[in-house]
Write a structure and sequence with these properties.
The protein folds into 2 domains: about 250 residues, Spore Coat Polysaccharide Biosynthesis Protein SpsA, Chain A; about 240 residues, no CATH class. It is of the alpha/beta class. Helices cover about 30% and strands about 15% of the residues.
């Protein structure tokens, strides 16, 4: 047939052939339109919303949806791996596409874990999974948002309670029911319920692997910073790839860590499983182990099994090692780019080695779930609601001042570390008082430390680590972030004082209208030229005499209630104290509890040293561990 003039040939043909030609041409046109629309249409058809409340009535029930995805119907007739991953991605139901307004939620049975349910989210035979309860809703939404922003849509979330399942469904997040019936509140690290969650993870892995898919399993308290799937694909022979708690680099590039040099625990917060016979055998034995003894922590059990046999190397190049039963091929993800809370927040190992991090897991921290959330906020990788950046009453910030000798001079020791921290702590104490008086949210300053904090005795920083001294340490190294954010009775501790992280103004999510509503306050010496209450310079800077009391502060700043940000030039000598002595006593009761411990002195029991918010009121105060267990208590 002459394709350059098909219509002329059709006109000269018999009616039967005319019909055939017309049918073929129409089919070609419609096929072309479909292909081009599939290639160039956006998979994201809705905007992201972090709101935790369900967007429709979660009490509504209906029959399970009978509409199966095109992907499921295609895979029913053949091998899923035969499909082009790009085509698979187009066939996935887009994440963040919320159910139609007025629709009813399907029956819970339709959310039961099955091969068909998982298959609907698989691309390239890989699925990325996390799980949790409603208390971690914001962590889960952050986890999902990071992945979808980098184009990873083959993900699933396991819901350990119905409240989370319903909330995620109404947000358009792929979710399945783990049938755990767990509490919706934060269970706390190390609690019996925490260990129950760990056992659920092991059962989940053992359930998914027989489906034949590769599984990238993650904890919810980690964040993806770069698409990990291309990296994982570099090691097709690996049965299991796992992160570790290694704090000393074994490689300086993006190769797998050298298994011979990794002495730290293998961390199961990030690990990838291929559905091989060896990995399925490991998962099955791991499940049987932890179900038989509820005292075994899931991570300890994994390490015990995998290290049962370790070595030799699989080959000279891949970095894989034979482990477990001698057949399982194991790889250790490099701690420099699959970061722990230490290699990311303390060492910034990836920066020293000029590498791009793939992930950060909020381990090595000291303030529970609130501390994890605050660390991610400091790193500007946590997604918050818009109102987080524009709190009621406005924000209070200040420019901290640190003398060079405290920061840089002398040896890095316990004495110089506490001298540096105490100097900053006194300024923060004043800032907390001013924030309390003005009913504003305090933006905490960056906190400088000379020494690291751990759970055991150490010489100041870990030998072989890339920690530079001094360094900006996470807030939970000194402050009890969980206590600062905890509801405390007003009659004993006075009003609560909200805080924000020191990077909040650098965060791209900070609205411009907040940063534009700004008042600079310059402290001045009373009696000096132009230094008087309510004195404002031509540049719009408010001059405020040092040693201002509670009532004067309230009077002066009552005129600026509509200003969203007030920044003090300094907090040294800014506040002369509360007029109301009852309020002052309650404030002191509150902030005394805001600071924690430094840990730990080597070869001393107990080895920790308590920070003291009012160290300057105790002549001769010295940083030292308790002399005995009887003396081992906070300074209040």
């Amino acid at each position: 047939m002459a394709w350059n003039n098909p219509f002329k040939e059709m006109a000269n043909s018999k009616p039967l052939f005319l019909t055939i030609y017309a049918t073929v041409l129409i089919g070609i046109v419609f096929s072309s339109v479909y292909v081009f629309s599939a290639i160039y249409s956006s998979p994201h058809s809705s905007t992201f919303s972090l709101s935790i409340a369900p967007s429709a009535s979660s009490d509504a029930k209906a029959e399970p949806s009978s509409q199966a995805s095109n992907f499921s119907r295609l895979q029913a007739d053949g091998d899923s791996t035969a499909l082009n991953p790009q085509l698979q991605s187009k066939l996935l139901k887009p994440i963040w596409t919320v159910p139609p307004a007025g629709s009813k939620m399907p029956d819970l049975e339709s959310f039961r874990l099955s091969k068909e349910l998982v298959q609907e989210r698989v691309i390239g035979n890989v699925v990325v999974v996390t799980f949790g309860n409603y208390a971690f809703m914001d962590f889960i939404l952050t986890w999902v948002k990071h992945l979808t922003d980098m184009g990873v849509e083959n993900l699933l979330v396991g819901a350990m309670d119905t409240k989370l399942l319903e909330a995620l469904y109404w947000k358009g997040v792929p979710v399945f029911d783990m049938g755990s019936h767990m509490s919706t509140v934060d269970v706390g690290w190390g609690s019996p319920t925490f260990h129950k969650m760990g056992r659920e993870k092991v059962v989940l892995i053992d359930s998914i692997l027989p489906f034949g898919f590769e599984l990238l399993m993650c904890d919810t308290d980690m964040v993806w910073l770069k698409n990990p799937l291309p990296y994982i694909a570099r090691f097709p022979e690996a049965d299991v790839l796992t992160s570790t708690d290694q704090v000393v680099p074994t490689v300086t590039d993006d190769r797998l860590d050298m298994w011979q040099q990794v002495g730290a625990a293998y961390n199961i917060g990030i690990f990838h499983w291929r559905a091989t016979e060896s990995s399925k055998k490991l998962a099955r034995e791991w499940k049987e182990m932890i179900l038989a003894d509820d005292k075994i922590w899931d991570q300890n059990g994994f390490n015990e099994l995998v290290r049962r046999q370790l070595g030799p190397s699989v080959d000279d190049d891949s970095g894989l090692v034979y482990a477990y039963d001698g057949n399982l091929k194991l790889g250790l993800l490099p701690a420099s780019i699959f970061c722990s809370g230490h290699t990311y927040f303390v060492q910034a190992m990836f920066q020293h080695l000029r590498l791009e991090p793939y992930a950060v897991h909020t381990t090595f921290q000291y303030a529970g779930t609130e501390g994890k959330r605050h660390r991610l906020r400091e790193a500007m990788v946590f997604y918050d609601l818009p109102e987080y950046y524009d709190p009621p009453g406005g924000l209070l910030t200040f420019k901290p001042s640190i003398p060079k000798n405290l920061l840089l001079d002398g040896v890095h020791s316990i004495d110089t570390h506490f001298a540096l921290v105490n100097y900053q702590m006194k300024q923060i104490r004043t800032a907390l008082a001013v924030a309390s008086v003005l009913n504003r949210t305090l933006v905490m300053p960056p906190l400088w430390c000379r020494l690291d904090r751990l759970w055991f005795g150490h010489p100041g920083i870990l030998d072989g680590s890339l920690t530079r001294q001094p360094f900006v340490c996470p807030l939970d190294h000194v402050f009890e972030v969980n206590v600062m954010l905890k509801e405390m009775p007003n009659e004993e501790f006075g009003p609560g004082i909200s805080i924000r992280e020191y990077t909040v103004f650098e965060n791209p999510s900070m609205p411009q209208e907040v940063k534009k509503s700004w008042l600079d306050v310059h402290l001045c010496q009373e009696g000096s030229l132009g230094c008087q209450v309510n004195s404002t310079s031509q540049t719009g800077v408010l001059k405020l005499p040092k040693h201002t009391n509670e009532e004067t502060l309230k009077t002066v700043f009552s005129k600026f209630n509509d200003v969203k940000v007030i920044q003090f030039s300094s907090m040294q000598d800014a506040f002369d104290g509360f007029t109301d002595k009852t309020r002052e006593e309650r404030f002191r009761n509150r902030v005394k509890r805001y600071v924690g411990i430094w840990c730990c002195v080597e070869n001393h029991t107990p080895g920790h040293i308590y920070y003291d918010m009012y160290w300057d009121e105790k002549p001769g105060w010295k940083a030292a561990p308790p002399n005995s267990t009887e003396d081992d208590h906070p300074p209040w």
